[in-house]
Amino acid sequence: MTELPRYAYVVLADRIAADITSGKLPVGAALPGERAMTDIYSVSIGTVRRAVRELRERGLVATLPAKGTFVVAAPAPPAE
Length: 80
What we know:
CATH class: Mainly Alpha
Number of domains: 1
Domain HTH gntR-type: 6-74
CATH topology: Arc Repressor Mutant, subunit A
Shape: globular
Protein name: Winged helix-turn-helix domain-containing protein
Low-confidence stretches: none
InterPro entries: Bact_HTH_transcr_reg (IPR050679), Tscrpt_reg_HTH_GntR (IPR000524), WH-like_DNA-bd_sf (IPR036388), WH_DNA-bd_sf (IPR036390)
Order of helices and strands: HHHEE
Organism: Streptomyces mirabilis
Keywords: DNA-binding, Transcription, Transcription regulation
Radius of gyration: 13 Å
């Protein structure tokens, strides 16, 4: 069976989560601004906003109004 296609925001959220796991974005680091992420990842601002919401729901980032979005935790390793 082939793998189902994934939404662009999930792909982006997974990519940012991988950067957090690898240490490229350590705990306490600020994510780039929404407009900057549209250029960095070549996606729409709606995709960026959904991806950041997904990361918040995963407990990886927190957004402070007028301050930015910051890494608060690394993803848990997969269960074996």
